[in-house]
């Protein structure tokens, strides 16, 4: 017999052992009955929903070939790497407490000092509809970031996020977030996090995020979504990496998860980096770092449209420096050729998967995305071999196709064309081409 207060864990382990060994017989407890599900991972739960346990994960294997601006000498290079290899564990304890742990075996998340965790958090849902989450997690900022990497349309999220990659990354810190859905048409969240950047006194830099989504239409194939985002951090007494270094949609120029282009990969610095010593800007160079964002999405049947805008300002804290400003946006149109609609979740304000109706041929989706970036750094006062004085700009045209073979397997292929202004590679190239493919398995 298993006591009730151990039902969520002990019974889960027992059920797993029984199903794995295929023994005959019945598993019983002195509490609620237990349900075991094996579709999409392994899930064990009590029928009263007080306890649950789910083991799952995702594997994303990428290969890309690219040239021009994407390499320092302009010649063709390629990269084969595990973009993500997450093992995920989540569940419920005593009905009102939720936990979620994900570990990235590809080592693209986290680092060797703090662990390669994508998330390690605990949430309390007893104050419905309010959720309080504590731990390591990505703060809310942006529609594409809210959408899981499993179900974003492009292989890589839009490049505007790379102008301020700190806004929705956990950076190995810890935080607390309060979120809620309101009147079945809105989603709100606010968070504060202690990041792994310290000031001169050893006090961690604090980051504040806020997101508001209004979605009066939020059913699959019938979505109207508007959102506003803000993120701010105080860097007045901290040394930090201020470089703005977008990969322009091609992770293979520099990745932690396997083979990349090595020393020939061109992850260029568009701006920032004033007074760098060992990649860190000197203390006192900048004060606040503030980012604002806007979101829009519309979906009707198999057609979906979405766009986001981001603007950033690193405010100078010394007469020796100038403010650094950046802005970026993208617009995207996607269409499911086989007729399925993309699902949407109001809680979190995000799109989700496409579920194939035809189990033999799956679902086929095509899309086009246009990205535009601009970085204004008046600290750059002389031309260099790769960066001219003035605003550095980049535009990307991405076309792609996604095949949802079933609910677990997704195959993607993207072609990316990049053009730049005021910034080149060492060979003088101001444009580049890339073809990137991905095979994904979710369980």
From TrEMBL:
<feature type="region of interest" description="Disordered">
    <location>
        <begin position="251"/>
        <end position="270"/>
    </location>
</feature>
<feature type="compositionally biased region" description="Polar residues">
    <location>
        <begin position="253"/>
        <end position="267"/>
    </location>
</feature>
<keyword id="KW-0732">Signal</keyword>
<dbReference type="Pfam" id="PF07396">
    <property type="entry name" value="Porin_O_P"/>
</dbReference>
<protein>
    <submittedName>
        <fullName>Phosphate-selective porin OprO and OprP</fullName>
    </submittedName>
</protein>
<dbReference type="InterPro" id="IPR023614">
    <property type="entry name" value="Porin_dom_sf"/>
</dbReference>
<feature type="signal peptide">
    <location>
        <begin position="1"/>
        <end position="24"/>
    </location>
</feature>
<dbReference type="InterPro" id="IPR010870">
    <property type="entry name" value="Porin_O/P"/>
</dbReference>
